[in-house]
Amino acid sequence: MTGINGLLRLYPARYRTEHGDEIAAVFEEATEGLTGRALLRERTALAAHALRIRAGIGSAQAGGRALAAAAPFALGALASIGAPMLLAVVSVLSSRPQAGGWAEILVPLVDALPSVLALVCALAGRRTATRVMLLLAVVEKLALLPLASPASAYVPWYSALPILGSVAFALLALAAPPDLRAFDGRRAKAVLLGTTTFSIAPVYLFGRLIVPHSGVHGFLHLELGWPAVFPAAALLAALVGVRADLPRAAGAAVAALPWIPMLSSSDPGSTATLILTAAVCSPLLGALGLAVLLRVARRGRVAQPLDPA
């Protein structure tokens, strides 16, 4: 029992009072006879659970359910960033197999592969492998951060914002409580595939076919707000049901926000960044406003008295 006392102190006092004995009994039973890595894994899992409860993001809490709802959108967005890079590597290898150096191929390959593999593992139902790939994605993107913002007076610090945005997507996908199995089920897999395809196709379609011929300056890329449309649709669906699912709606909205730094390489106070922020937030605010109108209209119909005639 002494081995678990320190871990139990990580729980909030009230939760520890109500569930401490039960947690200790289950832990002692689960770790009986375990040593080395197996015991360390169980201790780590218990400590992570305690910190989730303390932070308000446990599986039984609204914050945890919101993170579970955000996770498929975040992983789909992360894969939509990695997939084009992977395709670009394949294109370089097929068209110019001996051109350039290894850095031209290796850096985007290392950057893209964990994200795409995380999506593949999630679709295959391999939960542990998915989390490992997501963790690798965080590590490699942070390792590549100096390449995006080298120590030079000519390279502004905000040139690293896209990498930080992709790190935010990976951390969101990792933050979902494991016992909620955020990537399992038909809905989660539909969100994974829908987010990946919807995030890639419109940006490339608008960016290649409309913007180059529109005469609009480069920073007015309102089409970059399109990746937020799919989460906005999920937000609307979560709020217009008979009972609004607020954690699911919050998760969909939060999952769209990392697109702002992801798609930005301008000064955060610049007009370009303000326009980009408006482009990403507009679908979310529009979905929220439409949901409110629909609920008010439904309540009005329910409250309207029947015509005695």
Helix content: over 70%
Question: Structurally, how many domains make up the residues?
Answer: 2
Radius of gyration: 23 Å
Please, what is the average pLDDT?
Answer: 80
Describe the biggest sheet? none
Order of helices and strands: HHHHHHHHHHHH
Question: What can you see in these coordinates?
Answer:
The chain has 309 residues and is an all-alpha fold. The protein has two domains: 2-55, no CATH class; 62-301, no CATH class. Residues 206-222 have low confidence and may be disordered. It is globular and about 60 Å long. It has helices at residues 2-8, 13-30, 36-55, 62-95, 102-123, 127-148, 161-175, 186-209, 229-239, 246-256, 259-262, 271-303.
Short description:
This protein has 309 residues and is mainly alpha-helical. 72% of the residues lie in helices and 0% in strands. The chain is globular and about 60 Å long.
Draw up the topology in text.
Elements lengths: L1 H7 L4 H18 L5 H20 L6 H34 L6 H22 L3 H22 L12 H15 L10 H24 L19 H11 L6 H11 L2 H4 L8 H33 L6
Keywords:
309 residues; mainly alpha; 2 domains; 12 helices; globular
